[in-house]
Amino acid sequence: MIADVLADAASRMDRAVEAAKEDFATVRTGRANPQLFQKIMVDYYGSPTPLAQLASLNNTEARTLVVTPYDKSALKAIEQAIRDTPNLGANPTNDGNIVRVTLPELTQERRKEFVKIVRAKGEDAKVHVRGIRRKAKDDLDALKSEVGEDEISRGEKELDALTRTHVDAIDDALKRKEAELLEV
After folding, report:
1. Whole-angstrom Cα distance, residue 108 to residue 179?
2. Residue 184: predicted pLDDT
3. How far is 59 from 142, CA to CA, in rounded Å?
4. Bigger pLDDT: 114 or 123?
5. Contact 109, 100 (CB under 8 A)
6. E strands along 34-167, which residues?
7. Is residue 28 scored above 80 in pLDDT?
8. What's the burial of 129, exposed, middle or buried (CB within 10 Å: 0-12/13-18/19+)?
9. More confident residue, 35 or 126
10. What angle do CA 31, 37, 43 make, to 5 degrees?
11. Which of 55, 46, 91, 58 is nearest to 75 (CA)?
12. d(Cα 184, Cα 175) in Å, to the nearest integer?
């Protein structure tokens, strides 16, 4: 029973770390990257649709990305969604067939703002992992009547080690992203 609680907590923490890494990828660095556009939702015939389902994304140059929609009638909506995305600073242009997105050069001040955003995302991810730990600890406490206190204590120590490992993984990803952001 304790192993089940720990396995569930571990898989949920793994997913939280992966979500944090994906979140970090949506913050732009000096280069254009299709992952920046993963979370952009386009209003397509009245329903929000992920940009990746409406178009293909290609890197043509270091700071230019070409968005080729599968349905040409979605061009205006795609262009508007990219323009309205916060913290991207992109200026999309539409030539009737494709949307060309040119990302401006990052200033040192803007890079520092992005570092703050990434740190906030990292802290949110760590809070989520700690929330998973709290729930798993409550589940372990509920098992006290069925299992001895020594087993529960051992399970809590394993849970703490698991939490520490996942928080460290988030910190490592955060450090890599900060270094990438501050690299000129």
Report:
1. 13
2. 64
3. 52
4. 123
5. no
6. 41-44, 47-50, 55-59, 64-69, 91-94, 99-102
7. no
8. buried
9. 126
10. 150
11. 55
12. 16
Q: How far is CA 119 from the centre of its chain?
A: 12
Q: Which residue has the tokens 């809070």?
A: 127
pLDDT (average), residues 24-50: 82
DSSP 101: E
The secondary structure of residue 36, as a DSSP letter, is G
Amino acid at 131: G
Residue pair 35/25 in contact (Cβ under 8 Å)? The answer is yes
The whole-angstrom separation of Cα 17 and Cα 122 is 9
Helix, strand, or coil (residue 98)? coil
> Average pLDDT, stretch 63-73?
89
pLDDT in tens, 164-181: 999 999 999 999 999 888
Question: Rounded to an integer, what is the distance from CA 111 to the centroid of its chain?
Answer: 18
Question: What is the DSSP code (8-state) at residue 96?
Answer: S
Which is it for the CA torsion 102, 103, 105, 107, positive or negative? positive
- How far apart are the C-alpha atoms of 67 and 116, rounded to whole Å? 29
